[in-house]
């Protein structure tokens, strides 16, 4: 595809177990842009990523999500992935019996034109090159997917998947949680190596420290199921220094919590 990626979310409303979590959220991400969403616990940040990817637990009750003009909400979960949406999860699942190499090659082939597959040699070369950037041992190729991995290893594996799949829009849900500073630098470098006009990135995080390594173009503050304030990197710095109280006072927000993030 030559078209610059374009994810557009308009007036999105999402509920879980009849409790409304997102209450009219608007967000637009284009290729070459890095957006960061910050906010207190329980404001719907992880709900947003799950809704974009089509998690069945979350019911979209209003609004729209489009990718390159196509209706994402009409797509099955696997179709969303094939169209170029990718989610690096905070808590990746372990899958016994499926090696990293087999999983990734199958995922790449699923995104290719019908009847085409990536050659084994090209796949091995690409995977080897990208594992070196993430300082991952070759043994990872043959280990079962995330089984027995440490938290840091799982996060590196998510970024490896992202780099191999070449998504159009990548969502990273708190990939910095549980990482020490060295692992954070390595994971961030892996992400930075992928930044291009063909990729739009959404980073969901609680902490400024991640944004010291993955530099955002736009920072959004989420409260009460909506984006209530947007700005540049300086907004994240102010949040780190002063917390969220000044925003709540500025906007007259009494209670920012909308529900538990699942």
Automatic annotation (TrEMBL):
<dbReference type="InterPro" id="IPR010230">
    <property type="entry name" value="FeS-cluster_ATPase_SufC"/>
</dbReference>
<dbReference type="InterPro" id="IPR003593">
    <property type="entry name" value="AAA+_ATPase"/>
</dbReference>
<dbReference type="InterPro" id="IPR027417">
    <property type="entry name" value="P-loop_NTPase"/>
</dbReference>
<dbReference type="GO" id="GO:0005524">
    <property type="term" value="F:ATP binding"/>
</dbReference>
<dbReference type="InterPro" id="IPR003439">
    <property type="entry name" value="ABC_transporter-like_ATP-bd"/>
</dbReference>
<feature type="domain" description="ABC transporter">
    <location>
        <begin position="7"/>
        <end position="249"/>
    </location>
</feature>
<dbReference type="InterPro" id="IPR017871">
    <property type="entry name" value="ABC_transporter-like_CS"/>
</dbReference>
<protein>
    <submittedName>
        <fullName>Fe-S cluster assembly ATP-binding protein</fullName>
    </submittedName>
</protein>
<comment type="similarity">
    <text>Belongs to the ABC transporter superfamily. Ycf16 family.</text>
</comment>
<keyword id="KW-0067">ATP-binding</keyword>
<keyword id="KW-0547">Nucleotide-binding</keyword>
<dbReference type="Pfam" id="PF00005">
    <property type="entry name" value="ABC_tran"/>
</dbReference>
